[in-house]
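Blinded run. Sample ID left blank on purpose so nobody reads anything into the name before looking at the predicted structure. Input follows.
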Amino acid sequence: MLIVKDLHAGYGLSEVLVGTSLTVKAGTVVALIGANGAGKTTTMRAISGLITPTRGEVLLDGKPVQGLDASRVARLGLAHSPEGRKVFAPLSAEDNLLLGGFRWLPRYFGFRKKAAGDLARVYDLFPRLAERRHQLAGTLSGGEQQMLAIGRALMSRPKLMLLDEPSMGLAPVIVQEVFRTIRRLKAEGMTMLLVEQFARAALEVADHAYVMERGRIVVEGTPAELGRDERVLAAYLG
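Blinded prediction complete.
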């Protein structure tokens, strides 16, 4: 579903990624873990088109997408739930969700009716959003905003979802709820690349994992294999 080869990217004159390579097979969850500043979020942004790689290749379902605008990458089936949630604060929760379906909803009329089934699915996953569908997104709690960001990504009917730090800043009980949702999506066959500060929680849900340091992958394997790696144990699972 996703192949990243020798990816280089950064901001201005600062190069963050220096040859990142990874693969996400269809129907699997892949975790990307590492210390703050390792390049995880930059990797996600370069894959989704929010920043332009300076070198390397990104293949989404066999099609090269490196250098494309984020909107074009989204239309090809990639949804990005970004670090910090980035909801549209002045809009209602439901309008945020409808914006997530921009790639397949009608441009002018009838979009709410056509989106009814997808909205129902999101509200089934996150009943709290159904209760707050008319509430301004900026007034939702952090946990509710995270649910909204994931729901908005799902509304695009993606082939692949990028989830960047879905537990950041959330209370433990909300983190558990978010990971229950990730497990449910995995059971339904959703392909996901997950960046997560809680490495142990990420490995519990992942089929495969990569460890990133200083802009490149240094270790990869199944969660069981990484759980036996002394470097990973000392740095992330101790």
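Unblinding after everyone has recorded impressions. The CA atoms of residues 37 and 214 lie 7 Å apart.
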